[in-house]
Amino acid sequence: MSSIKPTATNTRRLALLSLALVFALVGMLLAAGLDITEDTTASSPSPTAIVPGSFTEIAQAVSPAVVNISTEKVIKRNGQAFRHFQSPFSKDDPFHDFFERFFGDGRQKEFKQRSLGSGFIIDEEGHIVTNNHVVENADKIKIKLKNGKEYNAEIVGRDQKTDIALLKAKGLKGFQVARLSDSDDVKVGEWVVAIGSPFGLEHTVTAGIVSAKGRVIGSGPYDDFIQTDASINPGNSGGPLVNMKGEVVGINTAIVSRGGGNVGIGFAIPVNLARGIIEQLEASGVVTRGWLGVSIQDLTPELADYYGVKDGKGALIGEVFKEDPADKAGIRAKDVIIAVDGKKIESSRDLSRAVAETPVGKKVTLKVLREGKERTFSVKIVKRTDEKEALTTKGATEETELGMTVSPLTPELARQFRMPETEGVVVIGVEEGSPADEAEVREGDLILEIDHEPVKTIEDYQRHIGKVKKGETVPLLVRRKAGFVALNITK
Question: Between 3.40.630.30, 3.40.309.10, 2.40.10.10, 2.60.40.3710, what CATH number should domain 62-169 receive?
Fold first, then answer.
């Protein structure tokens, strides 16, 4: 009896036949509608599965509600500021007029300064949200839709502290409205899209993720930014940051950059913070904030341990101002506020925002820790004014001729403006259109020198300013954030 021995050819035939049977079986199962895939409900999705295939639909849906904003403002400057030497020609010389035309004749001259930004339409009445710094001091404002139509716009109201402005376009027709989302629902790591006009390139769409929430960048007392790596550049300011549903979650506002361009760190104002501001601007053109009447600070680990705050959360009261709401309610210095109307307070910034957003005249319930024990107080919130705000900066003085308010540098102001210094004179207010404003003095500038003389106290400031004659221009040296800035101011 002969036996059949396997050969290489027979082995290949058997392998191919087996493979064919497997494919046939799979085909039969699929035809029968059976699910033969592995259950992966408990496993993490692969990276390719969570990356959106396209942002086209979002861009098409939102872009018509996004506008390009162009502004123009007239700046008056003294011609002598640019003169470095006197004319070598006599007034009768024909070259004298030529020289004066190019080197200035000492009279004030007008220059037109133009800027670009972005914004988005929020309602059927044609209201447009943008940044305050986009339209601040603008004499003319124009908006341009995606379809190319242009309209004149006017400012309804501005809020410098949150850098939000509300515009209204004249005769705006046939437009689309952006939908606002709940920015509290935004999650770190989710995809977002920024739409705007970076460097004047209209309706540019960029995508990225939410990098962080609740960022404090030292721009003001109500910092609470969404950080994103979606490309944001100059000109994007005021444009929308949009989620994957095509809803606006933030207002693109600022970037961190060494060279002026995007490096992957941009910031947007959450719409939940902006919503109440927008409503007040539409109703009255101004923002009214609540006032509690205390100076506050964050709890360090050492302070939290000292005051017996186990989780280290809360706002420590440094001072209670007499006859203000907190004083009348019985709140004391060294109390730690841990909740307002049941909402937990984790930091001094939380408390500032909660009180500022409380309607004037409303009574709120404050929960505080005093000597390790919880106590509850009912406080009636009053209107916050510039005068009340100045109470937190003892010794503040207002220079009416220059149009700026300065104060000794307190620990609270040093924290607010993120300054390493412990002494000096800081600018806490600048009046629009004043000499200080025209010299580009800003809130938060630390005045180091006046006419090359050091300034360390309010008395130094007043003495040096007192020497300046009416109409005279003097140099200022200030520290602004991490660097020095030289300015010329005319009294």
Answer: 2.40.10.10
